[in-house]
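Deliverable D2.4 — example input (C-alpha cells):
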C-alpha cells in the first residue's frame, strides 16, 4: 500500500476502477447489475456530461430533462486532440419526474435547476439542489412511514430527480465524503429490501467513493460493514454479527440469492479484501484508524480461533507488532489487546515479549504524545464548524511535522501525507490545498528521492475535486509526460480538462495554464530524440490552434477589447518552436506580429532583443566555424532597440536607452554608435519634457486632493466642545503601543489630575499587528494544591510553550490555589488546555482559556490603585488579575486591565462604562479587544491647533484670541502658566478647521505687544520617561531648586525647578534641599505620581515629586526636614504599593537601579528556572582591594579632608555650584534621632 494514495488502482493514468484482490469473484454478478451505467466499464474515459434543461413540465416536475452522454468517448484522430476541445454536445434523455411534489416544495429546486441549465459548472448550486431534493424525499418517506403507509422504494416518482441531480454533479465533480455518504445511505436503505442484484449495486458506489476519498474512515467503515451485512445475510454467521456493529438487516433475498452471495461474499473475501483494504488505507490516520483496525482485529482473532495454527499465531503477532509500531490514538488499548493475545498463545514468554515490545515501541507511543495537542486542536476546530480555523490548524500541524529532523528519522512522511489528505477530506474543493499537497509530493520525489508515491493518482483525484483549476491540470499533464505514459493517455488527460466546460468557469487564466502546459509538451515531444515530421507538424498545428482558440474564448467573454495574454505565453511558445526548427524568418515574423498589441511594454522589446541576440550568436558561430570570417554586426538586434525608442507610448524608455547604449558599445561600429548617440540625445530631450509635464500634473492632482480633503474636513460635524477642550493640548501621550491597540488615556494641560481621559472609537476596521495577544493566550488553572509553588506550575506547563507571565493566588476558603498563565501565543494556550482534568500533585485540576474575560478600563481617578479597582469591579464577579501598564516609557499612561474568572462576569462589568467617578471623570469599561486599534481625534491630531512661542508675559487668552480671530473660528485658547500663575511665554490656539489654522501661520515672525512671535502647527510631544510634579510655590524656610535628576552620559546633576524666590530673599543651599528630600527605591513601574503623592502626603506637605519608573524610584521633596524624616521612617519597608517593599536610599542607589524586567519566559527546551522575581538591587559582593567609592569594599577608605568616618564629600554637581555648602549624609538612624528629639522638645 502506498501512503500517498492509499488504494490507487492505476500506476499510470489512475483509472477510476482498477482491479483489486478478490474483485474477480464478483464477475459472476456483473450481468445482474443491469441498472449500472455502461460508461463505468471504461474507467479512463471522460465522465458523463450532464446539464439541466431550464424548462419545467406543466405538471410541476422539478427536472424535466437530463441530458447525458453515454458510452466511451467518440473516436478522435490524434490531431484532433491538439486543439482546445469545447464542451461536448450531449444527447437528450428523458427521465421520470416526481409528480407528487407540491408547488411550494418544487419552487426552490426549479429555480436551482433553471440556474444550472445556464451555469452547469456551479459546484455550490449542485450541492444545494441535492440537499433540497434529499430533504424533501426523506421527509415524505418518513411521513408515509409514520402514517402506516409502506412506500415502494422502486416507485419511479420518488427517486428520479434525486438520482439525476447526483449523476449530474458526479459527471463534473467528485462528490466529497459527505455527499457520498448521503448518496450511499439512501441507496442502502432501498437495497436492504430488494434483490441481491440491487443490493450488490451499492458495492460499486462504495468502490468509487473510497477511490476518491482514500482516507475516509467513515466510508471505509461503512463499506466493510455493508460487505459484512451481505456476508451475514448469506451465511447467517452469528460470530461475525457479534464482532461488527451497525450491520444492516438485508431482506428480500431468495434462496438462490443466498446461495450465490455465499459463494461471492465468502469469509476470505470479506477479511482479506474488504476489511484489509480499509485498514491499510487508513493506517496512518492516527486519530481514527482504530475504528477499522479494532473490529478487523476481532474478526482475525475469531478466524484464528476457528483454525488455530502456528503460522496463524505468527501472522497475528506480526499484525499486532505492526500496529504498535504505528502512532495512533488508542495505543494503550492496542497494547492491552496484545497483552491478552500473548497471554493466551505465548504465555511461556509473556514477560520477555511484553518487555521487549514495550521498550521497542516506546518511541512510537511518544510520537503520538508529541502530536496529541495538535489532534486536540483539530478536534476542537472541527467541532466549531469553522472551516477556516480548521484549515489553519491543519497548516500549523503540517508545518510542525515538516520541521522534524529527517536525519534522526523523526520526520514521518506518511503522517504529513495523511494530514494533507485529512484536510482535503473536509475541504475537497479547495484547489490551493490540493496544489500544496501536490508540491509536497513533488518535493519528496525530486528532492528526497522517494519512490513510493503515486503522484498521478493524486493528481487525478485533485482534478476530479477541482476540475476548474488550470494549475492542477497543468501539474497533471507535466507529471504524465514525466512518467512517460502512453501518448494517447496524455491526450486523454488534456481532453478531460478542456471538454467539459468546467475549466472555462474558472476564468481565462485557468484555461490558459492548461494550454501553456499542453503546448510545452507538444513542443518538447516534437524535438526530442527519435521524433519526426509528424510530431513537428502535430506540435505546430496544436500550438497555433491553442492561440486561435484562446483568442476566440477571450473575445467571447470580453469582446473586441480583449488584448490577449499580457505575458503572451502561447505566442512565445510558438516562437520557440520555430526557433528550434531554425526557421528564423517565421519566428521573427511572429515577434513583429506582436508589436501592435505589446509594443508599449519595454519588457516585450527586451525579450525581442534578447531573442535576436541569441539568433545572431548562433548564426555567427556557424558562419565562423564554416569559413573563419569575422562575425557580422547584430544589426537586427540594434534595429529592435532603435524601433522601441520610436514608440511614443513606451512605458520605460530609459531602460531601453540604457540597453541600446551598452549594446552599441560592445557590438556596433563607430558609425552606428554615433548615430545611436544622436537618437538617444533627442529621445532624452523629449523624455525630459514629458517627465516635467507629468510632474506638474502629479502636483496639481495632489493639490486637488488636498483641497478636497480640506473641504471634507470643513463639512464634518465639529466635535463636542467639552471633548474638544480636553483634547486640545500640546503635550500628547503616544498611543498605547504595548499589550493592545486601545487608545491611551489623556490628561488636560496643567496639573489637574482629575481631568477626564478620552477613548476614541476605531476609525479603521483593519486590525493592527499585535505585539502581544495576552487575552487569547492566557489560561486559568483552578484546583491546584494550596502549597504548590510558581516554579512547580511552570515546570508542569513548560512543554506547552513559552510562559510570558504567571500569577499564583491562594484561595483560603477552598484551600486551593489558582494560577493565571500567559503563553507566547494562542496555540500554546490551546495546548495547555489539553491538560484539563489531569492530575497535578494529587489533585484533578481545571484548565480553561481566559479569552473574553478581560475588561479594559481607563478614566479613573489618578490616585486609584488596585484596591480601588477591586472595590469598583469586584461586585460583578471574581477578579483573577489586575494589570496596570508600565510607565517606564511613558509616564502619562492611566489605564488597566481587569481579568475576571469567566467571560460572563466580564461582560456584566461593562455596565460601569460611562459611570461618573469624579467631578469631571466618566469611567470607561469595555471588553478588551486586541484586534482593534483606536485612533485619536482632536485639534492636535487633525492639524488645526497652532503653537505660539515668544509671547509677552502679560498677554491674556482674550487678547490672544482677538489677535487670531480674523483668520477663522477659534475653538479654544490656552496660555500655560507656572506654579505662581505667570505665563510661560507660549500658547496654544485651536481653530475649527485645518484651513483656518494654516491661514493663521501668516502671523509667524510678526510682532505682538512688542515681541516677535513664532507661529507653527502644533505637534505631539515625545513620550516622557520621567514625570516632574511641582505641588507648591512657597516653603516655610526657603525655596530652592530640588534635585530633579537628569541622565547625561551617566553623570548625576540637579536641575533647579522654577521656584520663585523666598520672601526673605535667601536662596537655600543644596544641603538644605537634600535634607528635606527622600529618595524612594523599589517603586513598581506601574505606579504613577498621583499614587505616590497620596502615599507620601500622610507625612507632610510636598513641594515636588520626580517619578523615575526607568529606575524603579521616585524623588520626594518635602516642605521641611521634619516631614522628610517622618516620611523616611514611615516609607522604608512600606508594602502598600502593589505589594512591593519600598526602600529609602540615596541618589546614587536610584541611578544604579536598573529598569524593571518582566515576562521571564520558561518554555520547551529551556534550562532550569532561576526564579520569577527580580531583586530590587543588584547583589554586589566585596572584593579584596576594591576602592570604596561610596559603594563599600574591603580596601582603604577615602574621605574628604576634615570629614569624619562615615561622612561623605559633597558632590559639587549635586549642589549646582562649585563651592556649594557641605552637608553630611543623614542615615535612617539620623532621621529617627532628629524626629525623636524634636518631639521631646515639643
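Example output (designed residues):
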Amino acid at each position: 500500500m502506498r501512503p500517498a494514495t492509499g488504494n490507487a488502482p492505476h500506476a499510470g493514468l489512475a483509472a477510476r476502477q482498477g482491479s483489486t484482490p478478490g474483485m474477480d469473484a464478483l464477475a459472476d454478478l456483473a450481468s445482474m447489475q443491469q441498472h449500472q451505467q455502461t460508461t463505468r466499464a471504461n474507467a479512463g474515459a471522460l465522465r458523463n456530461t450532464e446539464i439541466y434543461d431550464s424548462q419545467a413540465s406543466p405538471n410541476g416536475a422539478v427536472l424535466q430533462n437530463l441530458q447525458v452522454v453515454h458510452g466511451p468517448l467518440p473516436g478522435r484522430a490524434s490531431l484532433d486532440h491538439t486543439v482546445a476541445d469545447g464542451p461536448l454536445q450531449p444527447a437528450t434523455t428523458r427521465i421520470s419526474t416526481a409528480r407528487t411534489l407540491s408547488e411550494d416544495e418544487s419552487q426552490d429546486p426549479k429555480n436551482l435547476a433553471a440556474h444550472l441549465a445556464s451555469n452547469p459548472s456551479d459546484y455550490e448550486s449542485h450541492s444545494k439542489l441535492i440537499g433540497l431534493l434529499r430533504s424533501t424525499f426523506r421527509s415524505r418517506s418518513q411521513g408515509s412511514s409514520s402514517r402506516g403507509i409502506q412506500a415502494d422504494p422502486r416507485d419511479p416518482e420518488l427517486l428520479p430527480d434525486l438520482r439525476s441531480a447526483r449523476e449530474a454533479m458526479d459527471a463534473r465533480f467528485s462528490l466529497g465524503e459527505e455527499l457520498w455518504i448521503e448518496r450511499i445511505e439512501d441507496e442502502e436503505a432501498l437495497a436492504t429490501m430488494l434483490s441481491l442484484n440491487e443490493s450488490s449495486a451499492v458495492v460499486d458506489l462504495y468502490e468509487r467513493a473510497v477511490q476518491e476519498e482514500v482516507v475516509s474512515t467513515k466510508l471505509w467503515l461503512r463499506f466493510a460493514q455493508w460487505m459484512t451485512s451481505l456476508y451475514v445475510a448469506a451465511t447467517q454467521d452469528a460470530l461475525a454479527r457479534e464482532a461488527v456493529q451497525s450491520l444492516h438487516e438485508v431482506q428480500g433475498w431468495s434462496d438462490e440469492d443466498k446461495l450465490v452471495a455465499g459463494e461471492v461474499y465468502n469469509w476470505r473475501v470479506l477479511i482479506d479484501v474488504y476489511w484489509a483494504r480499509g485498514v491499510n488505507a487508513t493506517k496512518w490516520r492516527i486519530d481514527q484508524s482504530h475504528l477499522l483496525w479494532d473490529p478487523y482485529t476481532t474478526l482475525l482473532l475469531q478466524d484464528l480461533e476457528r483454525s488455530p495454527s502456528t503460522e496463524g499465531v505468527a501472522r497475528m503477532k506480526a499484525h499486532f507488532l505492526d500496529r504498535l509500531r504505528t502512532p495512533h490514538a488508542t495505543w494503550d488499548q492496542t497494547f492491552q489487546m496484545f497483552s491478552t493475545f500473548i497471554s493466551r498463545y505465548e504465555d511461556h514468554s509473556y514477560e520477555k515479549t511484553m518487555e521487549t515490545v514495550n521498550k521497542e515501541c516506546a518511541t512510537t507511543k511518544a510520537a503520538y504524545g508529541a502530536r496529541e495537542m495538535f489532534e486536540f486542536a483539530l478536534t476542537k476546530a472541527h467541532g466549531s464548524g469553522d472551516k477556516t480555523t480548521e484549515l489553519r490548524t491543519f497548516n500549523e500541524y503540517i508545518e510542525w511535522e515538516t520541521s522534524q529532523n529527517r536525519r534522526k528519522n523523526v520526520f514521518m512522511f506518511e503522517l504529513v501525507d495523511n494530514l494533507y489528505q485529512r484536510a482535503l477530506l473536509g475541504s475537497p474543493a479547495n484547489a490551493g490545498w490540493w496544489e500544496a499537497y501536490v508540491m509536497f509530493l513533488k518535493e519528496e520525489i525530486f528532492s528526497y528521492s522517494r519512490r513510493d508515491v503515486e503522484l498521478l493518482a493524486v493528481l487525478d483525484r485533485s482534478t476530479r475535486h477541482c476540475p476548474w483549476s488550470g494549475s492542477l491540470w497543468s501539474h497533471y499533464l507535466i507529471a504524465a509526460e514525466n512518467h512517460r505514459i502512453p501518448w494517447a493517455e496524455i491526450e486523454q488527460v488534456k481532453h478531460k480538462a478542456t471538454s467539459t466546460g468546467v475549466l472555462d468557469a474558472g476564468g481565462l487564466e485557468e484555461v490558459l495554464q492548461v494550454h501553456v502546459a499542453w503546448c510545452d509538451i507538444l513542443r518538447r515531444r516534437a524535438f526530442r530524440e527519435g521524433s519526426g515530421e509528424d510530431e513537428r507538424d502535430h506540435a505546430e498545428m496544436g500550438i497555433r490552434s491553442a492561440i486561435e482558440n484562446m483568442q476566440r474564448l477571450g473575445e467571447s467573454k470580453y469582446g473586441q477589447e480583449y488584448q490577449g495574454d499580457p505575458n503572451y505565453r502561447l505566442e512565445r511558445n510558438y516562437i520557440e518552436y520555430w526557433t528550434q526548427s531554425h526557421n528564423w524568418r517565421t519566428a521573427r515574423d511572429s515577434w513583429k506580429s506582436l508589436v501592435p498589441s505589446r509594443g508599449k511594454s519595454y519588457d516585450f522589446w527586451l525579450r525581442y532583443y534578447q531573442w535576436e541576440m541569441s539568433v545572431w550568436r548562433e548564426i555567427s558561430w556557424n558562419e565562423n566555424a564554416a569559413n573563419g570570417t569575422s562575425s557580422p554586426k547584430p544589426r537586427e538586434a540594434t534595429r529592435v532597440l532603435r524601433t522601441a525608442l520610436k514608440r511614443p507610448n513606451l512605458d520605460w524608455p530609459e531602460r531601453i536607452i540604457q540597453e541600446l547604449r551598452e549594446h552599441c558599445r560592445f557590438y556596433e561600429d563607430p558609425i552606428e554608435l554615433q548615430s545611436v548617440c544622436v537618437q538617444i540625445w533627442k529621445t532624452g530631450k523629449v523624455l525630459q519634457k514629458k517627465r516635467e509635464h507629468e510632474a506638474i500634473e502629479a502636483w496639481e492632482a495632489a493639490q486637488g486632493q488636498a483641497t478636497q480633503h480640506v473641504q471634507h474636513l470643513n463639512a464634518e460635524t465639529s466635535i463636542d466642545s467639552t471633548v474638544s477642550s480636553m483634547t486640545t493640548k500640546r503635550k500628547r501621550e503616544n498611543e498605547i503601543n504595548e499589550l493592545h491597540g486601545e487608545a491611551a488615556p489623556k490628561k488636560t494641560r496643567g496639573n489637574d489630575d482629575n481631568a477626564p481621559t478620552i477613548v476614541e472609537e476605531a476609525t479603521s476596521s483593519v486590525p493592527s499587528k499585535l505585539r502581544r495577544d495576552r487575552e487569547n493566550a492566557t489560561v486559568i488553572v483552578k484546583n491546584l494544591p494550596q502549597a504548590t509553588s510558581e516554579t512547580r506550575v511552570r515546570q508542569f506547563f513548560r512543554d506547552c510553550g513559552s510562559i510570558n507571565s504567571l500569577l499564583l493566588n491562594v484561595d483560603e476558603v477552598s484551600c486551593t490555589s489558582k494560577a493565571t498563565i500567559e503563553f507566547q501565543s494562542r496555540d500554546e494556550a490551546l495546548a495547555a488546555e489539553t491538560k484539563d482534568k489531569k492530575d497535578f500533585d494529587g489533585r484533578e485540576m481545571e484548565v480553561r482559556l481566559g479569552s473574553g474575560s478581560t475588561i479594559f478600563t481607563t478614566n479613573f481617578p489618578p490616585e486609584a490603585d488596585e484596591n480601588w479597582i477591586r472595590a469598583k469591579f469586584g461586585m460583578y464577579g471574581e477578579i483573577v488579575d489586575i494589570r496596570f501598564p508600565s510607565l517606564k516609557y511613558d509616564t502619562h499612561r492611566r489605564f488597566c486591565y481587569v481579568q475576571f474568572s469567566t467571560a460572563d462576569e466580564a461582560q456584566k462589568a461593562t455596565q460601569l462604562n460611562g459611570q461618573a467617578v469624579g467631578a469631571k471623570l466618566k469611567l470607561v469599561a469595555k471588553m478588551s479587544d486586541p484586534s482593534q486599534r483606536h485612533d485619536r481625534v482632536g485639534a492636535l491630531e487633525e492639524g488645526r491647533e497652532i503653537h505660539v512661542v515668544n509671547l509677552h508675559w502679560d498677554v491674556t487668552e482674550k487678547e490672544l484670541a482677538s489677535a487670531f480671530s480674523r483668520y477663522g473660528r477659534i475653538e479654544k485658547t490656552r496660555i500655560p502658566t507656572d506654579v505662581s500663575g505667570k505665563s510661560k511665554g507660549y500658547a496654544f490656539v485651536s481653530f475649527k478647521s485645518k484651513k483656518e489654522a494654516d491661514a493663521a501661520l501668516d502671523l509667524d515672525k510678526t510682532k505682538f505687544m512688542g515681541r516677535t512671535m513664532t507661529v507653527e502647527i502644533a505637534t505631539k510631544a515625545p513620550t516622557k520617561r520621567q514625570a516632574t510634579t511641582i505641588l507648591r510655590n512657597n516653603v516655610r524656610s526657603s525655596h530652592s531648586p530640588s534635585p530633579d535628576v537628569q541622565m547625561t552620559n551617566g553623570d548625576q546633576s540637579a536641575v533647579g525647578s522654577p521656584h520663585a524666590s523666598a520672601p526673605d530673599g535667601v536662596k537655600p543651599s543644596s544641603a538644605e534641599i537634600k535634607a528635606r528630600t527622600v529618595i524612594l527605591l523599589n517603586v513598581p513601574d506601574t505606579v504613577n505620581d498621583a499614587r505616590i503623592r497620596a502615599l507620601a502626603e500622610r507625612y507632610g506637605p510636598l513641594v515636588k515629586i520626580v517619578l523615575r519608573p526607568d529606575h524603579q524610584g521616585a524623588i520626594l521633596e518635602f516642605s521641611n526636614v521634619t516631614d522628610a524624616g517622618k516620611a523616611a521612617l514611615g516609607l522604608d519597608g512600606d508594602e502598600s504599593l502593589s505589594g512591593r517593599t519600598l526602600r529609602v536610599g540615596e541618589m546614587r542607589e536610584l541611578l544604579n537601579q536598573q529598569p524593571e524586567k518582566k515576562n521571564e519566559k520558561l518554555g520547551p527546551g529551556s534550562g532550569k528556572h532561576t526564579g520569577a522575581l527580580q531583586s530590587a538591587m543588584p547583589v554586589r559582593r566585596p572584593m579584596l582591594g576594591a576602592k570604596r567609592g561610596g559603594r563599600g569594599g574591603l580596601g582603604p577608605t577615602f574621605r574628604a579632608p576634615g570629614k569624619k568616618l562615615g561622612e561623605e564629600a559633597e558632590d559639587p554637581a549635586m549642589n549646582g555650584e562649585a563651592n556649594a555648602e557641605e552637608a553630611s549624609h543623614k542615615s535612617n538612624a539620623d532621621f529617627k534621632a532628629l524626629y525623636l528629639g524634636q518631639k521631646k522638645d515639643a
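The chain is about 45% helix and 10% strand.
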